[in-house]
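Supplementary Text 2. Reproducibility record for the structural model of the 332-residue chain.

All settings were left at their defaults, and a single model was retained for analysis rather than an ensemble. We include the record here because the model underlies the residue-level annotations in Supplementary Table 4.
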Amino acid sequence: MRIRLVVIGIFLALAVSAMAQPPVVKPACDRTCLEGYIDRYLDAMLAKNVNPSLFARNIKFTENGIQLPLGNEGLWYGMSGKGTYKLYVPDIETQQVAFIGTVQEGGGAPSAKGAKPAAPTIVAVAIRLKIVNGLITEIEQLAIRPEQSLGAPAAKPASGFPPTGEAVEKMGKPNPMFLEAIPEDKRHTREDLVRIGNYYFDALQRNDGKGYYPFTDDAVRFENGMNSCGLDREGAVIPGHCRENMATYGPIVSRIRDRRFVAIDRERGIAFAFGFFDHVQINWTWQLAELFKIEGENIRRIEAIFHRAPYGINSGWSTYEQTMSEEKQSIR
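Retained model, structure tokens:
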């Protein structure tokens, strides 16, 4: 009887000790680790494999502002290959990682006997992942597809510009300046990078030619894979062009709202944001992902992808008050 009581006591002591131990927490990811989660996510989407070793059970997934079940809906349904353009923005402090790149969607079997297989569509994507204890808990993505009618092939935009995915893919790889590290003694805090990036949104929304336009002399802006200021036709830098371009724009945006800075790379001086540009007079909204390469107090390069969305659309991650607000948000 005494031996049995001793054994029971030992088991109880072990159980209490186990309960007192803190849960095992995996170490935080460095930049290489966070970039690897983007690659693993793209591989999983291509394979249509919602693997519990990669995704949390209570994961939240949105595409183009709409919350969807994870797996076989949205881009998960039709992704057929990976593209070549890959620009990563890891945020070590918040364990998030953002990405602008390209994937392939659709294509495959011919529609008629003897016909060639249909070519896949190139889709530009912007992705944010949140990593907690080794698992992806949040997925926010934009899929910028060519406009097309139901059952019809993708058409060239009426603007004459190439589809966004094709234009981004044609860029080949990110500009080398996005990979340049900022000297440690010149690196900004997270809050400063958000502040400087948000100057661009403020300047564009209330653009009267007298605003604060924080561009370096060699600043360049690319939108949907196309140069929109800073370079001549031969690709040479036009000194001060982006600053002058902005100052002569005029007020073209009614409201820039839900400015969510979701990934900050302090080492390389990059701020990545999602947001919305409303145009009241034509009743449409640009839903966009935009990143800023920042040096000192100025922006040196901007890269953005966006598409036309229903007027007033929500990101799927904000309250109504945040959705309609022009205030910047630093997402952690």
